[in-house]
Amino acid sequence: MKQQHVPVTVKPNRERQHRMTAAVLSVVLQGLGQLYNRQWIKGICFLILEAVGLAYLIPRLNQAVWGVWTLGEQTQRFVKVNGSTVLQQGDHSIFLLLNGIIVLLVFFVFLLLYIFNIRDAYITGKLREEGKKATGASASLRYLLDKQFPYLFLSIPALGILFFTIMPILFTITLAFTNYSAPDHIPPAKLVDWVGFKTFTDLIQLKSWSHTFFGVLTWTVIWAILATVTTYFGGVLVALLIEQKGIRFKKVWRTIFILPYAIPQIISLLLMRNLFNGQFGPINTYMKAFGLEGLPWLTDPFWAKVTVVIVNMWIGIPVSMVLILGVLTAIPRDLYEAAEVDGASGFQKFRIITLPFIMFATTPVLIMQFAGNFNNFNVIFLLTNGNPLRGDYQYAGSTDLLVTWLYKLTLDNNKFNMASAVGIIIFLIIASFSIWNFRRSKSFKEEDMIQ
Amino acid sequence: MKKRNNPMRLAISYVLLVIIAIVSVYPVLWIFLSSLRPGAALYSERLWPEAFTLAHYGELFTNPSFMYGTWYLNTLKIAFFTMIFSTLMVTLGMYALSRFRFRGRKTILSTMLILGMFPSFMSMIAIYIILLQIKLLDTHAALILVYSSGAVLGGFIVKGFFDTIPRSLDEAARIDGASHLRVFTSIILPLSRPMLTYVALTSFTGAWMDFIFARLVLRTKENWTLAVGMWDLVSRYQDSNFTMFAAGAVLIAIPITLLFVFLQRFLVQGLTSGASKG
């Protein structure tokens, strides 16, 4: 079917030019288009912002690009001045890189503002062509509060995230492509250079690094699975125990079992570290009282792994229990009644009704818990500190996860480039996992259908 | 409908429940009793001490090399301000994301999700250098800033909760001429009290107990928080100062544990609403 051509009343040519003139003026100088559209206050605001931006960027941008590109050319050195040696400051590669990234980000923000300004001038010009009056400052403000409300609300957290999350992450990612590490490339004495993917190939191919990396990775995966499964099914078991018919004082049991969750984690972990102390800890004391040999809970590679899993159960089961109890109350009673009419046994009811229902409701949480355990810094670091040490590992112990290894590489050993590479790999694993989980979750697909 | 309760099964269940209860309570009881035991050693013959003393609690505040009182106040201050700022930012931001359909919304949601997946210490080095350059290293303001600006990333639970508040409520208010801010303060906030409690409580305890960033940022002993101080005590003296550690641990755990027990209802709601939303 052909669209019928609708004739439009052609306005005088001069009138039609508003949108282009305003836009071009705004391209030339930010805010000029708004002034042309007789939006005085808005135009002046844009002008002032541009002045601020230029004043900030002009002296810095050049230096920033140079800094990011070269990472400095001159190290600090001693020069003779009037017979005495003086330390002359050189380029500090890391400060150059970080400052460069900050300046480029600010540049990016102002670029967005500039584009917004052109677009705004164009739209207002179009409005004028259609014979409507351009909105004044107070109307603009009202518009901002009403229609643009979400942007206004989100701008403050967004700034915080930009400078304390996005920028640091960008910076750290770039570090993985440099040779910033002890002992040869630590500023200010030495310069840092771009090395491309060398850090990653070293991590995978150099025998000493790859052995540690794959060893730690394997244990991290085993740990994440064990920790998630034990706490989850422990939680199911405890919840079912409490919810059984005939059990009395349900509330009391629940409150007692929540206790480990209520204790601050750092306290309970440091406490457990003492409880499992091989020499003086109460657990070994009791075992000896029963005539058993005490176990090397934290000092033997195998038993240390067992200990972290056990302690994690103590901390994690209450959380799962609370979750599952919530799900259990949501199972419709009539399902059970129908099953009883059909003569189902207790176990059959559990297998056919309870378990599928729980699994269905909690799978997303289960996957998030897996991701959380993958990065479970606290349990490992505070309980074993990654120890017992392994001689054949680079700066890692038997219970170290990738994250605690990353922490040690950064803070204790200054292997910043390796640490960043490990961080990127952790991110890739967790991200692919979580995005897959998020996409398949109902709340993402049917978000607008809840309303 | 007749229901047979197998007495054997019930008995076994009760035995299991009692065992789990003992396991849950024992470490707590042990640390509490240890804090009252005379002497400093970790080793003791029996759980129940022969004599009781409050000396370790006094020692916490008088020991010259151990500034427990200062740390307690530091931690309280940091946790309090973090709680205020994070709750404010999270609720406002998530209100905008839950209630408005604007351009870039899905992008923001996905970005938040992705950013949340970076291990938080990946940003450690950068944050350290930034704080060094803006001269905020070793200050409490820096910690509050870092905690609060990171809080928004964990706001999905709050968004999920806001999603469940019927939109007809705020539409009605809008027709009556209420501004968005008004809708937020007089409709959304009162309706989401359990969620607010949950967010406030978790951000408070998070800051109260954070160890990683506190250790990184706070350099001098007077500025430390409890977590850093206690970790130092355990890792440096191991078992020679154990009873003092126990006393310190009890004093740290009491306020948080009480808060948890009293606000249990809200916590359970917060956790479960997070579950059903995914």
From TrEMBL, chain B:
Location(s) in or outside the cell: Cell membrane
CDD domains under this entry? TM_PBP2 (cd06261)
Q: Give the main location.
A: membrane
Single GO term (MF): ABC-type maltose transporter activity
The answer to keyword Kinase applying to this record is no
What is one term from the GO cellular component aspect held by the record? plasma membrane
Q: How does it sit in the membrane?
A: Multi-pass membrane protein
Q: Name one GO biological process term.
A: maltodextrin transmembrane transport
The residues covered by the ABC transmembrane type-1 domain are 72-263
Membrane-crossing residues?
A: 12-33, 78-97, 109-134, 140-158, 242-263
Recorded hits in Pfam families, A to Z, give:
BPD_transp_1
Entry-linked Gene3D superfamilies: MetI-like
Q: Which family does it belong to?
A: Belongs to the binding-protein-dependent transport system permease family.
Name this protein carries in UniProt: Sugar ABC transporter permease
Q: Which organism is it from?
A: Paenibacillus taichungensis
